[in-house]
């Protein structure tokens, strides 16, 4: 990945550490996203691994704000978490933060958030999570969330949360409180069950992570570890975002929509087929190549072969798009088949009635 | 009562109405606190009464922040509420706001607040509340409180709650959110059950009431009515306050403490017994006379006779203090006897497990 200014700041100023070979070796079995450099930094993940290796039980927390359908980027993240769960025998906690989405005006009411929460949950468990070790819950429907948020709130001040979230006079007072609720989601498994926690997050969420780690320091529990994930770029070249539908493929998109979105995607191709055959493509710029690496190929060798072929002018963009389209349609058909299989099992994963 | 500047502001600027003869007549049976002028103003209590008279079911909400034992002033308020409950066949909701006391640093943790909540609850039900129509709950232990607070929070802004509560940079973000939680307590019976609500409050709490009435207006439900209560003055002449123990008699005070506190109370007496017999006392200044009116005498005629006797020099402070001490000790002995009787019934009054 490109070592951006933000990345340097994260490592140099805020004290995160690069996710290096040594750590991969400690983990044993690695995951393709690690090989491809999508997992690029961490905080205290080495300490967390040590606790696991000394025989301790560990947990992973990965929240979802339910204000839309899931897209393929989310599925990739939750596949990675499933790999970690199996490797570390971890308990996985998945808070569905309806309150957050309401406070920040991403949904009209809690009912709308709830509808998406249940739909998202079904997508997530369909990946094949173990119901015994996977705990989903809707934030406002779970008895321990509010009292724990209240307890933790005292370790925050208005000025700290303002610095993190950036408020105005018009801000919903709930958005100001939400820093404490998020800390409760992350620290819940540690405080209530004694498990050290790792949170896989995007670099832009690091400020919230620091807020929560500060609280953990004050109440003297294990500071949650984090794994920093670079998400796949969106089809248009912009970041993937559910509120910008052309950047991503939703799990509910039909085959025609998939084909159209991929057809219109940003590539590393040249102006004409002739030019491309002559000069070769630019796979390191190309979103389609990035997506093929993540979704089409199983191992690194094949990915590198494809890259060489593109650079050598041996394949043109239309072919790559077709390959990706067919693969994505296949993935979605399979995903929806699994979804139906998991539908009746959904309640087993929830901490509360659904 | 004295028509203070605050009182005038409440009536003239903020649109509360005097609690007048006409309203008393509408109520039918009055309560001694009304006759003595302790209930002095209201908002929309006339509308609320009309809804009741047209056959609607109504509710009363009266919260308690559990950070100490109850004192006799609280008992008097809850006796008044019981009278209202019986007169109007009202459902009474009593939120015990452990979250509030924690946010505003009146307790060290939620466990401490919980301990007082249960103790306060026992004091309250011992007054003789009907378990079928009386609903106590601890704020953080009640499923509907947080989601309803979340829903209502969007109708508040940071600037509104800052204007009401007066925050600084050091404020707990929970205190900022608490405006929404309080609105949920007050509006809960209206939103969830359809009952119009009345809240008996002190004049100093009117800003919170206005905040909640604004929200009710926005979501188009009955704006909660209020009854403004002037509380009995404390024994030292200052306002009664649990955090200033000499001002009040706690339900847990022993007889020696009662006698000492009353002996040291602020009276309307003269410098010497001789002077008092000559000039007479000043009952309208006297805290002991105020307490005798509230706790010793049953009817107004006796109160007026005592007043005349004092003015005429026919009784001196020591006698009044003795009368009051004996009565208060008697009230507390009887109260504690009832408390023991009600102990096993406590869970019947709660909305959740205790």
What does the model show?
- Two copies of one chain form a homodimer.
- Chain A is α/β, with parallel strands linked by helices and 354 residues long.
- Chain A folds into two domains: 5-231, HUPs (Rossmann fold, 3-Layer(aba) Sandwich); 245-340, Tyrosyl-Transfer RNA Synthetase (Orthogonal Bundle).
- Chain A is 53% helix and 9% strand.
- In chain A, strand 6, helix 11 and strand 7 form a beta-alpha-beta unit.
- The A-B interface holds A 98-99, 102-103, 105, 109-110, 140-141, 143, 145-147, 149-151, 153-154, 156-159, 161-162, 167-174, 176-177, 179-180 and B 98-99, 102-103, 105, 109-110, 140-141, 143, 145-147, 149-151, 153-154, 156-159, 161-162, 167-174, 176-177, 179-180.
Brief account:
With 354 residues, chain A is α/β, with parallel strands linked by helices.
């Amino acid at each position: 990945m490109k070592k951006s200014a933000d990345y340097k700041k994260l490592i140099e100023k805020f004290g995160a550490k690069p996710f290096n070979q040594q750590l991969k070796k400690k983990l044993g079995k690695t995951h393709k996203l690690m090989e491809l450099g999508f997992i690029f930094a961490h905080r205290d993940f080495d300490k967390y691994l040590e606790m696991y290796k000394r025989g301790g039980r560990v947990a992973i927390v990965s929240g979802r704000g339910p204000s839309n359908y899931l897209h393929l980027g989310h599925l990739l993240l939750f596949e990675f978490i499933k790999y970690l769960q199996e490797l570390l025998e971890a308990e996985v906690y998945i808070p569905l933060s309806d309150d957050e989405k309401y406070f920040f005006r991403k949904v009209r009411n809690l009912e709308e958030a709830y509808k998406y929460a249940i739909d998202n949950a079904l997508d997530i468990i369909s990946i094949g999570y173990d119901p015994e070790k996977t705990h989903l819950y809707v934030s406002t429907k779970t008895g321990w969330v509010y009292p724990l948020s209240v307890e933790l709130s005292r370790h925050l001040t208005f000025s700290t949360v303002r610095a993190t979230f950036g408020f105005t006079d018009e801000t919903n007072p709930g958005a100001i409180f939400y820093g404490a609720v998020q800390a409760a989601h992350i620290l819940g498994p540690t405080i209530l069950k004694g498990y050290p926690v790792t949170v896989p997050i995007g670099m832009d969420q690091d400020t919230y992570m620091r807020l929560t780690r500060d609280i953990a320091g004050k109440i003297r529990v294990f500071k949650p570890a984090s794994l920093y994930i670079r998400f796949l770029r969106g089809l248009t070249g912009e970041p993937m975002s559910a509120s910008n539908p052309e950047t991503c493929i939703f799990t509910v998109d039909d085959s025609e929509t998939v084909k159209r979105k991929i057809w219109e995607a940003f590539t590393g191709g040249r102006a004409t087929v002739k030019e491309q055959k002559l000069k070769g493509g630019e796979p390191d710029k190309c979103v389609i190549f990035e997506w093929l690496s993540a979704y089409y190929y199983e191992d690194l060798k094949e990915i590198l072969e494809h890259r060489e072929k593109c650079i050598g002018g041996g394949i043109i963009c239309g072919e790559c798009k077709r390959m990706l389209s067919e693969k994505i349609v296949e993935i979605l058909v399979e995903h929806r088949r699994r979804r139906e299989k998991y539908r009746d099992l959904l309640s087993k994963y929830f901490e509360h009635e659904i």
